[in-house]
Design the sequence.
């Protein structure tokens, strides 16, 4: 079991945002997290990635409790995410954005930087090669030296995903990756996500509102409403689940 | 090998040329100004590492200058290492000690403070800068309010070379640091600390690193300061001095090492130029003995922030500037 | 025992003055998230305008409530005008700019006023006009209560009460609270945020004006750099109480005043000013939201 969320609660002041959450992911899963606005989906991501700490319950990564770990520690252990509102390092180049994720793989120390030792040059060139390789897989190599903030929305979303991949994650959290995309872009994204899952051998948990994407690629769907999971199963079952329908559309008037 | 040596070569050549020029052509007054240029360059470039590259606000840089100055001064008065004939060899060691002392203080101050953000960090660093000054004011071993006198050091050509060697080294080492993975870590924390953390960057450790490196060079600058002015007084390290450093960084452009160098040069030379201007009989009659320098200073700061907040170089270095110029044709 | 009570009275007076100035800092921080470094200089200019005004109107000849009120009025008016100018000319152009820039500008304005003050008023200290005469008002056992003690505390409390009324019971006051909470939502509710910010500056500056006169009464030596120290202490008081919170500023001011008085009385006067820095750092490292403030969670 890669990720286990056990009985997790979180509240801010008096507001209970997530209640009694139980979720597990295995190696290689592609799971979708859906739910009406305000259900708490991004909060779940924040909990898993370590930005928020649960008020109750445990989160386990590969069997190890990560409740008390700092965000960067969790990232280094293999949980990397993208953001609902793109959070690229906008004044840095595309290449630099990717290289930041690889900082943890930087094997030279301060002395090597200060003194320009050969270790510095060799490591930098290895990192750059890896970064460029990653960018070219996604067709972004031409943009490598452009300022990240100057590129189009769609490209920025892609770069955010590549940046996350550069951190060699075991679990990739994608927060509304299709937001603002049209049909053809969404189709492309669907292929991309599936390719990522298989080529990079990782698990993916994604938040999405676009049902075509969710139903199209997710093997399992978890539905969140008002902070609690109301359904967890295969897409076909979720589509006909009355509780899910109620959460999104409400209940039919008896009149 | 060549890549490694090129930077040092430039530093040596620059330091040598400046010191020879100073030795032959400049009088004592101008020589001292030159020393202050070297010191201020170190101050500005080191502060830029924290403010411009790492995006953290530090209003207490004068404190690190003070720690380095006093540590170095105290050491030179109590524990001179080399005898008279080789006395010049003392100064690099004093500068190193000043730097290390400051770096230690930087670590002490940085670890608790750098968890804070923005305004709060600014105020805490201001507070620490002032506390350092107040502590020095009350420490008898460094002379308290009277200060320290008789600190060895000259402004001759050899000392000039030493000063500019340190200055150049500061620029070189910080340049290299910024162009390494650590530099990218600094920038990522500046751009978006939360996103950086989510990508595996230990934001606090990164900020503390910038802070400690910065205080090291400020401390070394302090040592140069002590051995140039030959006397120290806590009054030289007030909040206004920290503001000086901030002005240099902002004027040059936060995030541009070249800019900090330019900013330091301008901020050192301009008041002296103004002082000469005020000395002119015509001007003096109008203003009397009134000191307008700080008024002009602060007004400049305000106007800079309103009309050219990116400073002179923005976040460009002169290498990119050259390329841009060439591209525009 | 009597000595202690005397110190408490002094501390409360000092604290009330700090509270007045602290309110100015906290209100501006509430609506603009800006540390108005120049606030201490507004206070200084208020003191000097009272000085020049009193001399011009020859108020020293007839000390009394009329003179006192006139001097306060003068100080408040000048502070209002200065606050207006600072907001309009220095801060408004930077609305929306990165926080660093605004902070640097605030520092610039503060320094500009300090040094201009030295040029215009002269660096040497002047004596604040005696518009009221101090005399022992009453005795309770061994404790002597001076007229000034009561006046200062009373004026300060009255001013704070007026402010409280304004903030809680008027439409503009409610608008100020709304903008402090969220200026973006306030705009959507139809509030003219620019006007509200202006009013906030007016209020803060007026309080500083009142504080300037009260300080002038008790510590008549005034000089262009007088704002720095009290500004720092009042700012620490605001942070201590919880920056952005009005009751916090008052609480912080009183705590600051009392502790300073106690330190000077029972420890050592050399560390009087260091207390402010020490408190500041302690608070920021251990409870940055202050006594009353709430810890804000950043939304991701």
Sequence:
């Amino acid at each position: 079991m890669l990720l286990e969320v056990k009985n997790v609660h979180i509240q801010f002041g008096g507001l209970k945002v997530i209640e009694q959450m139980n979720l597990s992911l295995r190696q290689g899963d592609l799971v979708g997290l859906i739910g009406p606005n305000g259900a708490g989906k991004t909060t779940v991501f924040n909990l898993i990635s370590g930005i928020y700490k649960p008020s109750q319950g445990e989160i386990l990564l590969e069997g190890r409790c990560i409740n008390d770990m700092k965000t960067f520690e969790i990232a280094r252990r293999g949980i990397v995410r993208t953001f609902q509102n793109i959070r690229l390092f906008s004044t840095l180049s595309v290449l630099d954005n990717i290289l930041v994720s690889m900082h943890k793989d930087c094997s030279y120390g301060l002395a090597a930087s200060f003194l320009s030792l050969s270790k510095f040059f060799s490591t930098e060139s290895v990192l750059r090669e890896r970064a460029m390789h990653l960018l070219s897989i996604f067709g972004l190599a031409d943009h490598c030296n452009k300022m990240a903030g100057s590129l189009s929305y769609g490209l920025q979303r892609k770069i955010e995903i590549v940046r996350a991949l550069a951190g060699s994650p075991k679990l990739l959290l994608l927060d509304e990756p299709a937001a603002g995309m049209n049909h053809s872009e969404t189709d492309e994204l669907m292929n991309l996500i599936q390719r990522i899952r298989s080529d990079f051998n990782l698990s993916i948990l994604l938040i999405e509102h676009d049902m075509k994407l969710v139903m199209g690629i997710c093997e399992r769907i978890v539905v969140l409403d008002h902070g609690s999971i109301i359904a967890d199963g295969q897409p076909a079952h979720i589509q006909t689940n009355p509780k899910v329908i109620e959460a999104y559309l409400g209940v039919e008037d008896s009149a | 090998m060549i890549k490694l040596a090129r930077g040092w070569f430039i530093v040596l050549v620059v330091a040598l040329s400046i010191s020879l020029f100073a030795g032959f052509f400049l009088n004592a007054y101008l020589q001292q100004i030159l020393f202050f240029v070297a010191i201020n360059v170190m101050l500005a470039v080191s502060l830029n590492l924290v403010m411009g590259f790492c995006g953290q606000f530090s209003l207490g840089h004068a404190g690190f200058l003070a720690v380095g100055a006093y540590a170095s001064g105290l050491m030179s008065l109590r524990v001179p290492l080399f005898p008279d004939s080789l006395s010049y060899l003392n100064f690099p060691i004093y500068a190193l000690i000043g730097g290390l002392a400051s770096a230690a203080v930087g670590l002490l101050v940085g670890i608790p403070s750098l968890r804070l953000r923005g305004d709060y960090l600014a105020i805490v660093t201001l507070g620490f800068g002032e506390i350092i000054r107040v502590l020095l004011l009350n420490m008898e071993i460094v002379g308290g309010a009277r200060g320290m006198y008789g600190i060895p050091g000259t402004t001759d050509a050899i000392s000039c070379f030493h000063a500019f060697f340190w200055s150049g080294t500061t620029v070189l080492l910080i340049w290299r640091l910024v162009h390494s993975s650590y530099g990218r870590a600094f920038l990522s924390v500046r751009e978006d600390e939360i996103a950086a953390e989510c990508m595996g960057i230990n934001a606090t450790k990164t900020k503390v690193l910038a802070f400690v490196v910065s205080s090291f060079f400020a401390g070394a600058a302090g040592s140069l300061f002590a051995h140039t002015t030959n006397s120290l007084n806590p009054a030289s390290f007030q909040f206004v001095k920290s503001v000086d450093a901030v002005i240099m960084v902002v004027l040059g452009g936060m995030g541009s090492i070249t800019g900090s160098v330019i900013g330091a040069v301008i901020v050192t030379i301009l008041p002296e130029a103004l002082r000469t201007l005020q000395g002119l009989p015509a001007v003096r009659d109008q203003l009397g003995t009134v000191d307008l320098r700080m008024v002009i200073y602060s007004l400049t700061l305000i106007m800079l922030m309103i009309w050219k907040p990116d400073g002179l170089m923005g976040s460009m270095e002169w290498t990119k500037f050259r390329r841009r110029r060439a591209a525009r044709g | 025992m009597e000595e202690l009570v005397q110190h408490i009275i002094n501390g409360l007076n000092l604290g009330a003055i700090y509270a007045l100035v602290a309110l100015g800092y906290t209100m501006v921080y509430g609506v603009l998230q800006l540390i108005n470094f120049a606030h201490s200089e507004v206070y200084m200019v208020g003191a000097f305008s009272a000085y020049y005004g009193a001399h011009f109107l020859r108020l020293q000849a007839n000390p009394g409530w009329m003179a006192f009120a006139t001097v306060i009025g003068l100080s408040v008016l000048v502070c209002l005008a200065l606050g207006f100018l600072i907001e309009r000319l220095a801060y408004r152009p930077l609305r929306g700019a990165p926080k660093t820039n605004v902070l640097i500008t605030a520092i610039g304005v503060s320094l500009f006023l300090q040094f201009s003050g030295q040029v215009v008023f002269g660096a040497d200290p002047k004596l604040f006009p005696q518009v009221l005469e101090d005399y022992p008002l009453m005795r309770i056992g061994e404790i002597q209560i001076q007229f000034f003690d009561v006046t200062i505390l009373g004026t300060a409390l009255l001013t704070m009460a007026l402010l409280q009324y304004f903030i809680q019971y008027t439409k503009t006051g409610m608008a100020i609270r709304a903008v402090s909470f969220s200026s973006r939502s306030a705009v959507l509710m139809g509030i003219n945020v620019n006007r509200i910010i202006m009013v906030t500056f007016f209020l803060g500056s007026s309080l500083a004006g009142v504080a300037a006169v009260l300080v002038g009464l008790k510590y008549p030596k005034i000089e262009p750099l007088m704002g720095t120290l009290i500004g720092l202490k009042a700012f620490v008081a605001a942070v201590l109480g919880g920056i952005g919170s009005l009751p916090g500023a008052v609480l912080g001011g009183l705590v600051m005043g009392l502790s300073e008085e106690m330190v000077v009385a029972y420890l050592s006067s050399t560390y009087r000013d260091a207390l402010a820095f020490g408190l500041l750092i302690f608070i920021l490292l251990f409870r940055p939201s202050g006594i009353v403030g709430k810890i804000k969670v950043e939304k991701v």
Chain C has eleven helices and four strands.
